[in-house]
Amino acid sequence: MKKHTILLLLGLFRKQKLKNLANSQCLLVSEIKKVQNRKFLSLINHCKKNVPYYKKINGLNEVKSLSDITKLPFLTKKIIKENFNDLRATNSIKNILFPIQLVVQLGRY
């Protein structure tokens, strides 16, 4: 992927994020809770499918809402050290983001 294509996609992503943030300012508390719950469950499903460490964790299927967050195990420093590679998503876009970060850090945008 060429640098200018990556930067264009990054700009479109930021524009959409800003639009979503602006729209969320007018939501009712009940609507905010629904959005939080949907995003939380999306994250849990992503972890179940793409993060090797969480594929091994029993009980993730019991998580049905944000209120079930207490069912998730704590990540200690020891667990992170022992499972560092398994805590990285297999569908990570690290290879795409690194050139973007480098371009931004060097001021070549």
The chain-level structural class is mainly alpha
**Annotation field: number of helices:** 5
Q: What would the average pLDDT be, to the nearest integer? A: 78
Percent in strands: under 5%
Please describe the biggest sheet, giving its number of strands, its sense, and whether it closes into a barrel: none
β-strand number: 0
Radius of gyration: 18 Å
Helix content: 55-70%
Number of structurally distinct domains: 1
String of helices and strands = HHHHH
Shape: globular
Distance between the termini: 16 Å
Quaternary state reads single chain
Explain the overall architecture.
The protein has five helices and no strands. The chain is mainly alpha-helical and 109 residues long. It starts with a helix and ends with a helix.
Keywords:
single chain, 109 residues, mainly alpha, 5 helices, globular, disordered C terminus
What topology emerges from the helices and strands here?
Layout: H1 3-24, H2 29-50, H3 52-56, H4 77-82, H5 94-106
Helix pairs in contact: 1-5
TL;DR of this structure?
62% of the residues lie in helices and 0% in strands. It has 109 residues and is mainly alpha-helical.
